[in-house]
Amino acid sequence: MKPGLLVVVSGPAGVGKGCIVRKAMETMNCIVLSISATSRPPRPNEIEGVNYFFKTREQFEEMINNNKLIEWVEYCGNYYGTPKDFVLSEIEKGNVVILEIEVEGALNVRKMFPDCVLCFIIPPDFQELENRLRGRATENEEAIQRRLKRAKEEFSLIEKYDYVILNDTLEKAVSRFTSIVEAERMKTRRNNEIIEKFKNI
Amino acid sequence: MKPGLLVVVSGPAGVGKGCIVRKAMETMNCIVLSISATSRPPRPNEIEGVNYFFKTREQFEEMINNNKLIEWVEYCGNYYGTPKDFVLSEIEKGNVVILEIEVEGALNVRKMFPDCVLCFIIPPDFQELENRLRGRATENEEAIQRRLKRAKEEFSLIEKYDYVILNDTLEKAVSRFTSIVEAERMKTRRNNEIIEKFKNI
Fold this sequence. Notes:
Two copies of one chain form a homodimer. Chain A contains eight helices and nine strands. With 201 residues, the first copy, chain A, is an alpha/beta fold. Chains A and B meet through strand 9, helix 7 and helix 8 of A and strand 9, helix 7 and helix 8 of B.
């Protein structure tokens, strides 16, 4: 009774997506993180197969043409995308694959995998989000303003998601996220095998 | 972000529905149990408004005619049903109302409240269910056989439910049940208020 699952996690920059997913992985060992492919060159410290699968533009375009990607975008002259084989083989094993991607990508994944689960993480309020972005102190004012504008655009599409997860404290948000994963795995439509067993008693 | 909810819990006799719901009520204080109305006379120790709302046949028929029941059945010459007002007012308060009813009743509730959540509890296997029924030692062989036959009939309708919850250990089953309640409360379609807030930032 442990069906595999594809879970998409979105939310504005600074909302804590990465923290929630990493903590959830510590409590549920069925959770695996999807690794993106990119044509961007590796930065120092970035490791092939851990941070990204690094590809040349030609290799990436071949993946697009051969339908090897669940979704992809071109951003600042580089390709980014989600390799399909990894996701499918992990679902097949009964694992829960997490995709951390932005809203447009999420909606494209839903088209390709109608059975995926879309989660949107929200901050307690907008001011809190701004505080968190400023707290990072890694970006200039212009970049922060750009991210806040982008957050507003993303909020306009929350309704397209299945679940909305409040991140007021990390602990609660992780518990909310794992509850969704647990619940989705108990959906009758994902458990045909066990249902058939009981129907044929 | 705590929307009210109607959750229907079904499953064969002996599967542990009552235990799971009672334990869940201890961990989530938003959970309330719906109290049925019946035209059956009270047994010794049964308390009005705790075990049942006791009604005369005439009073019960008036409730039926005035559309005051979510669902009702006549069984062994007595009426049993779920009063609508209590359920609606608790949902309005943001509480999670649990209905512990059998399969046909559950499917009738779904017709009246399409937004309700249907959970079906299953035992680890059929033998285990039989053991539990015999372990109760409160019923004769004929009654046990009747319950097992009934269980098989109920299993044939599991697919109509949203979730299937395995009761292998009480603790795990309670955690599964509360995960479903938590997850359902995070569904975007139940959180229009907070979504509107973020859309209008």
